[in-house]
Amino acid sequence: MFDTTGQISIVQLAFFSVAIWPAFYCLIKHGKHGLLGWIFICLFCTIRIVGAGIIIGDESGDKPLSEGGLILSAVAIAPLVISVGGIAHESYNSLKDHRSILFGSIPHVLVHLGCMGAIALLVIGYTKFETASSTANDMKTGLDIIRVGGVILLVVWVGIAVITMVSLLYPRKLYGERQLIRGVVVGLIALLIRILYTLLGSLINSTSFNPKTGGTVAEKIVLDVLPEIVLVFALIAAGIASRNLKYERRPPIS
User: Fold this and answer.
1) Each residue of 141-153: pLDDT tens digit?
2) Which CATH number applies to 4-245: 1.10.3210.10, 2.60.40.1080, 3.40.50.740, 1.20.1070.10?
3) What stretch or stretches form a coiled coil here (predicted)?
4) For site-directed labelling of 177, which of 6, 62, 77, 205 has its Cα 20 to 30 A away?
5) What is the reported pTM?
């Protein structure tokens, strides 16, 4: 019999095993401008599949949950933030003449640096928190590190959201870019819920938000799994709708 974590992992495995294929299709179709965004969507799906598979395997064999599966599940949110930033950046391409710095490479690089730092902190924090031999002091230190990682992700989200909102002030010439930014807006809303869940999990000492004990299936579905599914679905739908964007960018043949 699977517990809450196992049941959640089954849902994740089922969805992301399917989602990775249209995500890979978008990676191929979007070309160099969308490379980093779609690579990280594929990476996120892969992490979710591997992490869920490890947890399901442990539970079906009546083994204690391995630290690797739990840590993979915990830190996957950071690549998801990078993917949203990358796809948002792809939708800014025709706006660079308006605000070259705001819509150029510098914010894109900062998003990646912030997320990479958050990944490192989350891995360290969850390693200290999830290890079976962790002392009370180790767990406290781990939670403090997780909080810092969560705050960094929230700051990065604010940066992406501000640039996205500013970008909406300018008309996009290309149909594909308009489709992408719609997906990004939906994704940002879902991503905020997911980041706040991670951050609250390290701040609130309750059964529902505790990173180790989790909560009920319904709570985790609404606050953890559903936002990720909505986000990935919105981005993939926008990616498929804008699959010809690289051809739209080509200058007309005279």
Assistant:
1) 888 888 899 899 9
2) 1.20.1070.10
3) none
4) 77
5) 0.89
